[in-house]
Specification:
Elements: H1 4-26, E1 35-37, E2 42-51, E3 63-74, E4 80-96, E5 106-124, E6 129-131, E7 134-147, E8 161-174, E9 179-193, E10 218-233
Antiparallel strand pairs: 1-6, 2-3, 2-10, 3-4, 4-5, 5-7, 7-8, 8-9, 9-10
Amino acid sequence: MMDRMPRFLIATLLLTAATAPLAAQVGHNPESSPYRDIQRSTYLVFTAGQFRGGGGRVGVGPHAGYTYGAQFNLLANRPLQIGLGILYGKLDRLVQDPSKPPETRISGPVSQGVLWTDVAIQFNLTGGKTWHGLAPFLGTSFGLAFSEAVPEDQTGFKMGTKIYLAPMVGTRYFLADRLHLQLDARFQFWQIKYPNSYRLPPSTSPGSPPVLPDGILGEWVVTPWLRAGLGWSFSLPF
């Protein structure tokens, strides 16, 4: 009998710990509770953001500009949420002419358009509820980024189409049942590949160092990306 008591106590403590958050929530008068159910499951979110970073080691990757887009969110009132998004931005980047010496090879910045298409998987930390109107989340997005050609760059470097991954953290703030503000910070990872000419001495100054003295023609670049959005719920026709 005595050896069963510790097991009973342990089980009781575990059960109490598991139900404590629920008890705290249930203990509130519904009118004064800081928790509110998120009533809607689908939202269209329009976003504006700032893409930052340095464009890689030599600055030729697109960076430092503003982005605009829209995201369709499904299961927005569940712990696990899925989003489909499309974004566009005009970003700055440098041009490195490998045929010239270091003091004259850099020009720009020039503008480069980038189109992102992505899938976002988001974990809502407060589940299907808000806390004082807030619904914080963690997640990640991944997809394809399509970069436009840059007429000013005739050096052989092309950004092209890239697969990217962007972990994120943020929150929604519900102004009303159908309307919320959204803030998030992304950290986008994509790979930049450089042409072989970047590791060769400049043809106009053979004694000068190349653009990439170490000869490494690729790198993964992480770029901070801050966004703000306005979300509006609507009903699906099916």
